[in-house]
Amino acid sequence: MTDPAAPPPTVWPAFRARDARALIRFLVDALGFEETAVYGEGPVVQHAQLSWPPGGGVMLGSVRDVPDDPWPAQPGSAAAYLVTDDADAVHARAVGAGADVVQQLHDTDYGGREFAVRDPEGNLWSVGTYRGEPRLS
């Protein structure tokens, strides 16, 4: 359901995982990401791009336990908010896939409907209908 007229995303949340292939499976199966690109051999993922169907996406890769890692992001320390038109459907999908729901589906005071889950690495994913406020001109 990607809008072909929308400009390509230029901001990508990115993080690391101890079991990147399992995390990719969780994000695809439980939340509905699309596996766009995965580079690596065996259990090691050098780079993965997962697209969020309404637009945007995330990038991830396997943790590198080396002292000179130039980007030492710790697995399980990321959080992201995913916008959807149907939070109830994504919630049902996540629950059906056995996701660890850390915040139940609810209506917010600012007009959104959202819930949150923890992925197998410990990252937090909030999913809701709130699209944010328009940019100031």
Automatic annotation (TrEMBL):
Q: Which Pfam family, any one of them, does this sequence belong to? A: Glyoxalase
**What is the name of the protein in this document?**
Putative glyoxalase superfamily protein PhnB
Q: Which domain of life is it from?
A: Bacteria
Identify the residues that the record assigns to the VOC domain, covering every copy.
9-130
Q: Which PROSITE patterns match?
A: VOC
